[in-house]
Design goal:
This protein has 515 residues and is an alpha/beta fold. Helix content is 32%, strand content 27%. Among the domains are: 124 residues, Rossmann fold, CATH 3.40.50.980; 97 residues, 2-Layer Sandwich (GMP Synthetase, Chain A, domain 3). α1 crosses α3, α2 packs across α3 and α11 crosses α12. Adenosine monophosphate binds next to β13, β20 and β21.
Length: 515
């Protein structure tokens, strides 16, 4: 099974159903999408690329993204979608690490194609050459290429080589297989949301990451795919797109969700009015603080679902469903909304100590995942693969605890753990407290080396506009809420926190600042 077969099937079943939108403008039916993908695949093969070869997509969100992605798959190639915020030097590193042969790029990111070396070709996706590939030389004529079947692929063949976003260390290529993505896609319907052909997914976050992966369940359902005309994230644009096209679903990191909620409040919309623009907002990828999701629910209604996953088990770990979020009468509701929910259908989750033994409910250990969504391994890195997958379980590097009902609460990534004077401090816990302090907009807590304590806690705090904050008040607030040893020893008041393209706080950058 090749993921491109899903597209072929929908194209035959509902050829004229609109599939891809550039803003409100329909740009491809399901048949046209498949036809273009098949043409692109045939052209790549004509360049000498063989099944299994790597094709880079270094593009901002673009209406052609899905045609090219499925074009690579149609020809049995491995897609390497790259974060559009990367520096060209980092992209070149990936080109070499992946041994990529071809790259599709947008000119804003690669003004000079010669800047990327070692490839057979670098194609600007807005060029006339790319137009000819996608649309065929003579449009409307007999199309010999379309009748070619997608290349056969084994379920464990790599479909997507995902370079980890690099909040820690050097990126590694995660080999995500056709089976992994089929599993993720099917799981969506049981754990995240029902999808009908009238639904539409909007790509409000980078398509090179989780948001793009959600194209698969939406293709499975024959739904519509909307690439906002701005190509990026613009909350007001999303509200308007939803009003015109029908309620949108989307995946976003918590920082983006916050901005959508801000916009709803700024426009003075009721939760019902928000429902004209949004069907389901799936959040994940970074911690969503309990206060923030509560506010989102209050302002926009019950249209949120949380997922927890990582590149190594794409979008598939746990889910906190609409029903969980709605169940305010449950005695453990407060704890549940601060959790990441329960294991998604296709996987098992357990929490283990360093020896791999499962820990009892309530104890903090490393989160392990097992199932068909788990990556094949890291690209050309057997040592890292062996460290990450042991006895069939993926060691996520995330620390967490399960409760008696199977709800997982994340404490932190194991690398983020601060050990001060021999005591473990989970930054997340300190952040949750400080976020409730008056005048605080955002917080990130890291450990700084200290000769006496090994490490001490440092808090970077972004004040709300106009708020006058000082260390003394914040310290008093913490003293009132958490153990003394967890209190930050130092506060750095900053205008903004450094974040990556997906809205995750770059703790590596903050740690460098306190070294
Ligand atoms: P990536 O591989 O770049 O998608 O990053 C995955 C990491 O993001 C996970 O290992 C977690 O540390 C974090 N993450 C993902 N989902 C959530 C979530 N719902 N809540 C908190 N952290 C999350």
């Amino acid at each position: 099974m090749n993921l491109a077969h899903l597209l072929q099937r929908k194209a035959l079943e509902h050829p004229d159903r609109p599939a891809i939108f550039n803003g409100t403008l329909p740009v491809a039916t399901h048949f046209e999408w498949a036809e273009r993908a098949a043409r692109v695949g045939a052209h790549l093969r004509a360049q000498g690329l063989q099944p299994g070869d790597r094709v880079l997509l270094f593009m901002r969100n673009h209406p052609r993204y899905l045609e090219l992605l499925f074009g690579a798959w149609w020809a049995g190639l491995v897609a390497v979608p790259i974060n559009a915020k990367l520096h060209l030097k980092e992209v070149q590193w990936i080109v070499e690490n992946a041994g990529a042969r071809w790259a599709f790029v947008t000119a804003d990111l690669v003004p000079d194609p010669a800047a990327l070396t070692g490839l057979d070709g670098v194609m600007d996706v807005d060029s006339t050459a790319c137009d000819a590939w996608v649309n065929g030389a003579e449009r409307g004529g007999e199309d010999a290429l379309y009748i070619e079947e997608p290349e056969e692929r084994a379920p464990d063949d790599t479909a997507w080589l995902f370079y980890t976003s690099g909040t820690t260390g050097r990126p590694k290529g995660v080999m995500i297989t056709h089976r992994n993505l089929l599993t993720m896609g099917l799981g969506y319907f049981n754990d995240v949301d029902h999808v009908s052909p009238q639904d539409a997914i909007a790509y409000a976050a980078p398509m090179s990451h989780g948001a793009g992966l959600y194209a698969i369940p939406h293709l499975m359902a024959g739904a519509r795919h909307v690439v906002p005309a701005s190509g990026g994230f613009d909350a007001a644009e999303l509200f308007e797109l939803g009003r015109q096209l029908g309620p949108l679903s989307l995946f976003a990191a918590p920082t983006i969700v916050k901005r959508i909620v801000d916009e709803a409040e700024a426009q003075g919309l009721t939760p019902e009015q928000c429902g004209q623009s949004f069907k389901t907002i799936v959040y994940g990828g970074a911690p969503m603080y309990a206060a923030d999701i509560r506010r989102a629910l209050r302002s926009m209604g019950l249209r949120f679902v949380q997922i927890y996953g990582q590149g190594e088990s794409p979008m598939t770990g746990t889910a906190l469903s609409r029903a969980h979020l709605a169940d305010t009468a449950h005695p453990r509701h407060e704890a549940r909304i601060a959790s990441v929910g329960v294991a998604q259908t296709p996987v098992r989750i357990r929490v283990a100590g360093p020896d791999g033994q499962s820990l009892p409910a309530g104890e903090v250990g490393e989160v392990l995942i097992q199932g068909d969504s788990i990556m094949a391994g890291y690209w050309q890195n057997p040592e890292a693969t062996q460290a990450a997958i042991r006895d069939g379980w993926l060691w996520t590097g995330d620390m967490g605890a399960l409760d008696d009902d199977g709800f997982l609460t994340l404490k932190d990534r194991s690398k983020d753990l601060i050990i001060s004077g021999g005591s473990n401090i989970y930054p997340r816990e300190v952040e949750e407290v400080l976020l409730h302090a008056p005048g605080v907009a955002e917080v990130a807590v890291v450990g700084a080396p200290d000769p006496e304590w090994g490490e001490v806690v440092v808090a970077f705090v972004v004040p709300l506009p106009g708020a006058a904050l000082d260390a003394q008040t914040l310290d008093a607030f913490c003293l009132d809420q958490i153990a003394r040893f967890k209190r930050p020893k130092r506060y750095e008041l900053v205008e903004a926190l450094p974040k990556n393209n997906y809205g995750k706080v770059l703790k590596t950058v903050l740690r460098e600042r306190v070294c």
